């Protein structure tokens, strides 16, 4: 099953492991009994629906198997059909490019924290973005930032690895070419750097959120950290250190008041906020 699903165009299944696919099968059914990982409880229609959804848009599958209720930075899954997903009311990050400095600092701090949790978590999955834009992330009414569009999110199992990725090459057939094209070769699962998502976000999103918002010398410190974080030629440790430094700069720039309901009034009593 791992090899078969690897041919689908979704970055989510670019580097599948058996542990990841078992999680998909168990949670996709949405029944009290988790069912067998061998899909014995699936009808042929269920299997086709699952494969179609994975091929067209893996976003609703990700919402099911990594739910926000378990701490993942994703909205609650309410339902889906093909490319149509039903979710709660939110605003895209682009709506906050003109936000006040304290709100911009809060959102940038949250965004860096989201990327950190995707890179390092208790389940030992490494999530990375193949691309990002202003609609990739969203904000709830309480100010909490989350991943609004997970369709460009890839997953690598750091615990188990990907058996299919160990092969020297990948076979192409006419169906996979029709779905994803055969011109561009995708990188190996083992060559995705830890810095990938940080570089994308520090280049494309955070500058539009943070530039020109703060007095000197704080703004200069932010600009330097952003430039280093967004430099793809730098090795992983340098980019990660720049992102960590940027978080340290942003942390005291956030305010603690009811506008940030997701962390208020906890921020008054807990240094974590």
TrEMBL record:
Pfam families: PIP49_C (PF12260). The keyword Transferase applies. This is Divergent protein kinase domain 2B. Belongs to the DIPK family. It is found in: Secreted. Its main location: secreted. Residues 51-230 form the FAM69 protein-kinase domain. One of its GO terms (molecular function) is kinase activity. Keywords: Kinase, Secreted, Signal, Transferase. InterPro entries: DIPK2A/B, FAM69_kinase_dom. GO terms for cellular component: extracellular region.
